[in-house]
Design brief:
2 domains; 215 residues; four-stranded mixed β-sheet; 36% helix; six-stranded mixed β-sheet; 12 strands; single chain
Amino acid sequence: MGLTPSIMLQLGPDLLIDAKNKMPSVSLSLVEELSHGLIAAMERGELNAAFAYGIDHPRPGIERTALFEEELVLIRPVADGPLPETVTLAEALSHDLVQAGERDMVQQLLKAAAEKFSLPLHIVYEAQSIPAMRALVVRGVAASVIPYGTAIEELRAGKLAMQRISDQPPKRTLYLIRPGNAPAFRQQEAVDRFFASVTEHLLVSLGSLARRVGS
């Protein structure tokens, strides 16, 4: 099963324990990749299922189920005093930013937003490594617009600060994707319940940053 880095950071080890308890006869192997990497792996026949973002248009050979929409946040260095809980999109994009590469969906969302609202975009560092991105923000040389889960450990430890974007928050939709016309698993009902529990755990973790599709 494929997971993005932000989901893996929120749930990864717990998922393996949960799967062992709920599906003792099913062998689960987790694969961590950015969404475009998970899609490519599924197209190569390497994954049975994945939780991935940004598959907003049908793709041949892939079945998708939209789960929820997630709001991205501004992550920045800790300040000497308290920061406002929110910033505008213009304020968020005015920072020197570190983002993943051009193929990453978050950077594509930021570029589209900057173009749509005629805002400057200062991506001064690119890193495919999530730890490297976080380290640059902790050092105070950049901020980043990323999923909450990507920085969850540093936020909980007080090493980074988070601000929501109040006016035009970039959002992405999480999908459960599977190979099209794939045969059912022998333990399909248990697997489906497990997938549903993954979604519920993520919704609890994200809180008000996530909203079910259709709600």
